[in-house]
Input
Amino acid sequence: MISRIKALSQLNGISGDEDNVREWIISQIKDYCHYQVDNMGNLICFKKGLIIPSKRLMISAHMDEVGMIVTAVTEEGLLKFTTVGGIDQRVVIGRAVRLYRAGITGVIGTKAIHQQTESERKTPVKIEDMYIDIGAESKEEALNVIQLGDSISFIGDCFEFGDGCIQGKALDDRVGCAILIEMIQSKLKYDTYFTFVTQEEVGLRGGQTAAYNVEPDIAIVVEATTAADITDVPEHKQVCHLGKGAVIGFMDRSTIYNRELYDISYALGEKYEVACQTKTLVAGGNDAGAIQVSKGGVKTIAVSVPCRYLHSACCVMKTVDVQSTFKMVCLLAENLL
Output
């Protein structure tokens, strides 16, 4: 599982440009299920189980990561850009990035600190005041190797460190993709649909169309969610904690989760000794918000891995939480139908 997460983390696929991720996932699941790709770029898979259930279950994770996109080129050959998905401008400056369709790298920069005014030094640099330096000396030279609209991803190694921690870019939601692949490669009790969806980070778009196509009765969204268990954050605002297991929330900004599924999740965790926790803050959102209201409505629950420094080049998780999330999703898949 961890080696697969590392491989997925290193793939580049910002919202709307997830082809690399989808093709790699297909290479992992093509011998284990039937699959198709819809017009949104979602990968929709059907895995035959031992039993045909009376209800249809869909388990979903999103392939896309937050990133950036080229919007202009200056006369000096520097690239201007905007963000794709919710990125804190404070985690961008000074980062190495990859324009992966063009096959080149660059560095995000801004005016040197000794050229900034006193007030500028006290405030975060705005995205519109940053640029990407790809080593070009002119606009013409830059446009020979890139074009407007090129996708930009963070560059960052994925590795294990400390007491069972793993860090890397795009762990939101490549960890969910890894869990789904693991399930597809396993024997299942029930026939199950798996969806690897696009454009979650810019409005839950792929999840909406995937649910419309699959028409599930029940959906499990496998995600990463913000953990703020760090110094100076009040306990009730820490959202969730690394090392305390899978996160099963009752509500976020896009979804009020099905109460029956919420209760079943905790009952299964207690019965089978799978560590789980709830979110202590109503915040964030995921594809459940779109899936839940698809067609006539879908009973929906999200099971997430707690993650520090979400939407950055250095997301941090604990491997024990990944395993707890995997076990919880497997238990739900066997007990909800």
Summary: The first helix runs from residue 2 to 10. The longest strand covers residues 218-226. The radius of gyration is 21 Å. The mean pLDDT is 95.
